Amino acid sequence: MALSDPVSNVSTTLLSVRQLLLVPFRLRTYGVVLYLALAFPLGIGYFVGAVVGLSLGISLSVFLVGLPILAATVGGVVLVAAGERVMARRLLGANIPAPSWGLSEASRLRDQVLTVLTNPVLWGSLIFVLSKLAVGVAAFTIVVVVLSLGLSLLGAPLYYDMPGASVGLFLPEPIQRELSLVVPWEQFEVGISFIVRLTSWEVSTLPGALLLSVLGAFVLLLGLNVLTAGGWICARWAELTLSPGNAGE
């Protein structure tokens, strides 16, 4: 047992590292990136539509004019949630079964309306729709930073020597810091001190451009793993809100 445990731990570690390295070569990874990239524009539309519809419907409901607006808003939330379930299944691999509205148990229109309004699926869908904007802002920021920075560094050997192109690290002024470690010893002080200086660095040779390209590949690998983790969180959130009561299954 004592001999097999280290071997098992090493195998598990190698498998985890292999999974991290293979993330850029999986089709599901780019499904996650597409889902996260679409979250921002969709989140804006969902949030504006839901907030405007609910506020107008509630404020005008005393005149009965708001009731059709509320009904249209609720119907829109239900349709959006249905579309999001399909997207989460196809792009994130989420396990979201079709929800049960319980309409077959209510015979009269009034009972059907009450059944829909008291169903946790409706309120979970509304929470998901309203939260989509916050998810979209965070996701869009990470996607843009990862892809723009990673791809620009990765392609440095293709354009580093083009006329007018400036590739490298450019600072407005050099950054200099002094790091010191001093230890009291009897009546003396013994220590070490050294200066760290960071200046601008312009790539003008192919080896330097290749070094940037390697850095870009690392940024893309790290960023795609972060996005994949974000996609996993989004899948669990979709399972929890779009099909409440079935997330544990």
Would you give an account of this structure?
This is Sensor. The chain crosses the membrane at residues 32-52, 58-82, 133-160, 209-235. It comes from Halorubrum xinjiangense. The longest helix has 37 residues, at 206-242. It is built from seven helices and four strands, in the order ααααααββββα. Helix 2 packs across helix 5 (120-154) and helix 3 (66-92) packs across helix 5 (120-154). The protein has one domain. The chain is mainly alpha-helical. 66% of the residues lie in helices and 10% in strands. The protein is elongated, with a radius of gyration of 27 Å. It has helices at 4-21, 27-60, 66-92, 109-117, 120-154, 156-159, 206-242, and strands spanning 168-169, 175-185, 188-198, 201-202. It starts with a helix and ends in a 7-residue tail after the last helix. The mean pLDDT is 84. Strand 2 (175-185) and strand 3 form a beta hairpin. Strands 1-4 form a two-stranded antiparallel ribbon. It has a two-stranded antiparallel ribbon with strand order 2-3.
Topology (elements, then pairings):
Blueprint: H1 4-21, H2 27-60, H3 66-92, H4 109-117, H5 120-154, H6 156-159, E1 168-169, E2 175-185, E3 188-198, E4 201-202, H7 206-242
Antiparallel strand pairs: 1-4, 2-3
Helix pairs in contact: 2-3, 2-5, 2-7, 3-5, 3-7, 5-7
Instruction: Give the strand order, joined by hyphens, for the main sheet.
Output: 1-4
Structural class: mainly alpha
Runs in which pLDDT lies below 50 for 5 or more consecutive residues are none
Q: What is the chains' assembly state?
A: single chain
Total strands: the figure is 4
Shape: elongated
Evaluate the radius of gyration. 27 Å
How many helices does DSSP assign?
A: 7
Please give the domain count. 1
Largest sheet: 2 strands, antiparallel
Average pLDDT taken over every residue:
84
User: Helical percent range?
Assistant: 55-70%
Approximately what portion of the residues adopt beta-strand conformation?
Answer: 5-15%
